[in-house]
Amino acid sequence: MYNQHDILLEAGTNELEIVIFHCGPYTFGINVMKVREIITPLPLTPLPGTPPAVKGLIELRGEVMTVIDLPTVIGVSHEETSEDRLIVCEFNGEKSVLRVDSVTEIRRISWEDIDTPNDLARGIEGLTNGVVKTGDKMIILLDYEKIALELSRKDIFAREESKRVTPRNRSKKIIWVAEDSEMLRTLLVETLEESGYHGIRFFFNGKEALDAFEEGSDCDLLITDIEMPKMDGLTLSKRLREDVRYKTLPIIVFSSLISDDLRHKGDSVGVNAQITKPEIGKLIETVDLHVL
Predict the structure, then answer these.
(1) Contact by Cβ (8 Å): 128, 28
(2) Does the model's pTM come out above 0.70?
(3) Separation between Cα atoms, residue 114 and residue 231, nearest integer Å
């Protein structure tokens, strides 16, 4: 089946490739950088005591992975067919599997063409990163990261980890954060404030942050996600490094896409550090390293 090999190698182009797939009445997309391969369904081993959307475990070439059933997540009925596919994903340093109705193509798009969720995503707004119209199709970008995080309850573990951060006098430092996920924004503001950082300003995407920087900034450090509508975090970082005012601004990428295969992208645009979500304790340590 599909194996990941033709991803965008150059960072800062503000483009991405998405795998397009279907579930019930919806057409979804997921960043190809999160996809390792697409396969036909394999025998499942049930996992008692797990949420209904966690269908069980599969073994693929010696690796055991959890299978998440997207129809169950979004509340649509599904009958198994020969078109069913398993999308093997890897992010946050772990692999998991998403079961969908069918997979059709890979398409390259620009982050500029991605808008915030609208009426077409009604009922599943909390599971999307945005929508994009390509030709005659309206594609909903699935926030699989949030789905997997909540089903594994790692959001709770991240909050518990944040409570172990030692409070210090950080109140005079100004931190700007570009992050489109409401859940992560909440986690970040709770953690930053509990650890003593109170001068925090949030932006919903890289374009909003860049506009603010172009007006002039007195912030001490930028934390940015990679995947965001309008402008991704790597393009934002590249544009800031091209501005003499922000050549030395500390920039930390906080993303689910940090891996050994993809770390070179952040290095190429001059970021200072790259941390995998949701390692919130390590994030605070890294912020301290650069601003205290």
Answers:
(1) no
(2) yes
(3) 9
Are 69 and 99 in contact, with CB atoms under 8 Å apart? yes
The CATH code belonging to domain 165-291 is 3.40.50.2300
Q: Are 207 and 231 in contact (CB under 8 A)?
A: yes
Which tens digits make up the pLDDT trace of 129-167? 788 877 777 888 888 877 877 776 554 445 555 555 566
What are the residue ranges of helices labelled H in 93-249?
A: 144-152, 154-162, 182-194, 206-214, 233-241
Phi/psi of residue 141, nearest 5 degrees: -80, 115
Run of H or E residues at 69:
strand 63-69
| Class of domain 2-151 as given by CATH | mainly beta
> What would the pLDDT profile of 21-80 be if each residue is shown by its tens digit?
999 888 999 988 889 999 999 999 988 888 888 889 999 999 999 999 999 988 888 888
User: Are 141 and 131 contacting, i.e. CB atoms less than 8 angstroms apart?
Assistant: yes
Instruction: Give the C-alpha distances (Å, rounded to integers) separating 45 from 40, 65, 133.
Output: 16, 10, 38
